[in-house]
Each structure stands twice: as C-alpha cells, then as structure tokens.
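User: Could you check the structure of this?
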Amino acid sequence: MSGNAHVIGAGMIAFGRYPESSYSGLAVPAVLAALKQAGIAPGEINAMWAGHAFGGMLTGQRIAKEIGINGVPVINVDNACSGGATALHEAQRAIRDGHCDIALVVGVDKLTQFGGGTLPLVAEDWEVQQGMVMPAMYAMRARRYLHDRGATTSDLAEVTIKARKHAADNPYAQYRKPVTVEEVLASRMIADPLTMLQCCPTGDGAAAVVVVSDAVLRRMGVPAMTVRASVVHSGTYAPGHRDMLRPEITYDSARDAYAEAGIGPQNLDVIELHDAFSVAELVYYEALGLCEPGEGVQMLRAGETTYGGAVVVNPSGGLLCKGHPVGASGVAQVAEVFWQLTGSAGDRQVENPVHAMTHVTGGGISGLDHGACAIHIFERKMP
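Assistant: Sure, the predicted structure tokens are below.
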C-alpha cells in the first residue's frame, strides 16, 4: 500500500423509528453532516461505498443522486451487521492503494419495515430451520458465561447500567434514561437469562464518514484520525461442538489488527464494540485481549471499562442503547471514535484519547461463530 487513509468528517442521525422514511431519506442528513464537518463538497467525492443489509438493489445510488454525487463508482456492500464497517474497509483500501483521494462511506438500514420481532435470517440454514435466532444464540452464550466465569445475572445487568450511563450524554442514542439492576432484571424475558433491557433495540438509522488520502489531508489541514489497521474476517466452519465463550472470528481479527497497527490492547483509549446483547460485551473483553480469559467480569466490576478506567468501552452507549440498524452500526461506531479522537464528542468526551478501536460482527450461519467480523484501529492526527 502506498499511503494512509484518514477520516476527516462524520455524521449520523439519531437512531430510532422512522417508518415513513425511505433509505435515502435516512442517509442524506447523515451524509450532509459528514460532508459539512469535512469541508468537502459532493462534487469532490471520487467514490462511494454504501453498507446495508436490507435496503435492496442500488441503495447507494439512490442516496448519491439525492446529494448530487454523479458519475463516480458507487459500490453497495452487504455483510450483515458488518456491512458498514466492510464498506469502510474497502474505501480505505482504495485510498491507500491510490485509486481515489476522497471517498464517502455510508451505512444505513431500516428495520421498522419488518414490523418488529427478531431479524429475518436465511431460511435454508438448518439452524434457522430449527428456530435459531440471535437472542437464542446469545442466551446460550450467557448461560455458559454464568456457568464458567462465576458471574451472576446482576453482572449481566451491570453492562446495561454502564451503557445507559454513557448514552445519557449521546443525543444519537435511542435509550438514554438511567436504569437500575432491578429494573433491568425485571424487564420482559426475551431468552433466558437475557431480559429486554439486555438486548439491543431495533430501529432505523444512518451514519457516514469521509475518508481521504495523505495529499488531501495535507491540503485541508483539519483534525483527523488515521486508519492504522483494517481487518475483515469470515468465520471458520466447524460442525459439532462450539465453544460459546471463544468467538474465534473476533480473536483472529483482533490478533491481525494489532499486528497491522503495531500496537496492543494496552494502547487503546476508546473502543466501540458489538454489544448486541449484554453478555457479548463481557465475552469480547477477553476476545479483544483487554483481559485474560475468565477476567472479563472482574474488569466490569472494577470499573476498568468506563470513564476513569483502563479503556472506555462504548462511550456512545453501544448497540444496547444507541440501537442496531445493522448496516449502519459499523459506520456509526467509526463516527463515534472520530468525534472522540478529534475532541468533539461533547459531554461524553474521553480524556485525551490517542488510539481507538471499532469492532462489529455479523450474521448467523450454522457451523460458524459469525459470518463476518470487521475491526479497525485508528490514531489521532491533529493539524
């Protein structure tokens, strides 16, 4: 690769329910906000990548025409929950390889189109045929975590408590009201032991970031974050027994991301990780190398993953509070860490962060931990 890729602008809409909106109606305000922060006009965009899962054909082109982006390559990316992050992976690679200088990355999805319930999975999958849905899979993971790690259901609830505290200062999050352990555990049971307040809300949303080359960044002279690592993995097929507490796709992706970035987990100041369910955050503490296997719940109890701790995990409130409109989530994570690294996160600002990570997994396929995982590591770059 011949150069670096840098994020210089980010935008998103408040995640929520917009049943009357189109996909382009969701995405355009986020794109315009990202372009404004970057100081880039639509006509300067060289290429565009649009991540989504349920938008149908030519989602990116429908967004581009509303903004005045014409005649450039527009690439649509479907990679389940990792779609938006995979779109960034492809955009930053095009920048670093010299194929373009200014790229737009959009993530968008509209889940209100399904009228509620769990997300539809591919019917031909045999586990899906047997009734496997994401809450059920994470509930099994939670049961194994409680058994093997000496954790309690109150520990699972504490993940939600922390997320709500962080989200209280995030105007883009769906759930911002503080809750107690008792309220979390008393909320409606979804898949034992996971109650409703331990499951991410569905909804609609969009986020966008502007990515540029070294030459453009030098010309612009604006605050930025540099892509130090960008890794996308697919799962490894293994029929039969599955270790629910060792998500190999995240372990492998994190290992490769740290190697590419030349740093370790101890260097991270901010992480936005895939906490679609409360137990996921605890499992991913271990998979991302923040602690040794078995020590995740101790990290949480000691306050090591909130403000004043070793690393602030999900300052946005994470998927548990911000919401999870699938294709938008990976880009929204990048937007959050961009604001953190450039000191523009407002009341939820982490003190003097230098390095940040985003992590998102996607898709349920029998025999695989997940179908896709995307991890990015970023470094602050001030003018």
